[in-house]
């Protein structure tokens, strides 16, 4: 018997955990690049910057879907997940601003 996806914790929904995973991967990518190469101010963006941009730019459509589907149904859980996502986005922006 299959479980109803509406009864699962919201964090287990792909539209919730994918943006979180992508944001954490992007943050790890930036911090890993800085750990390996140090703080380098390059005139031309390298591969690391492009990977980070792809990871961050691919999230808004998934987040929009998440908001359209889950905000009306499970407001409190949705807002908690969105708050966590905003925190990780801010950490990403701070890392890119101060470390690159």
Could you please describe the fold and organization of this structure?
- This protein is mainly alpha-helical and 100 residues long.
- The protein has one domain (13-37, 45-99).
- Helices cover 72% and strands 0% of the residues.
- The protein contains four helices and no strands.
- The chain has helices spanning 14-37, 47-57, 59-70, 75-99.
- Helix 1 (14-37) runs antiparallel to helix 2 and helix 1 runs antiparallel to helix 3 (59-70).
- The longest helix has 25 residues, at 75-99.
- The termini are far apart.
- The mean pLDDT is 92.
Overall pLDDT score: 92
List the domain count as a whole number: 1
Choose one word for the global shape: elongated
Bin the helical content.
Answer: over 70%
Largest sheet: none
> How far is it from the N-terminal to the C-terminal residue, by CA?
51 Å
Radius of gyration: 16 Å
Number of strands: 0
Runs in which pLDDT lies below 50 for 5 or more consecutive residues are none
What's the tally of helices?
4
In terms of DSSP E residues, the strand content is: under 5%
Return the structural class: mainly alpha
User: Secondary-structure element order, as H and E?
Assistant: HHHH
Which key features would you list for this structure?
100 residues; mainly alpha; elongated
What can be said about this structure in brief?
This protein is mainly alpha-helical. It has four helices and no strands.
What does the secondary structure layout of this molecule look like, with pairings?
Blueprint: H1 14-37, H2 47-57, H3 59-70, H4 75-99
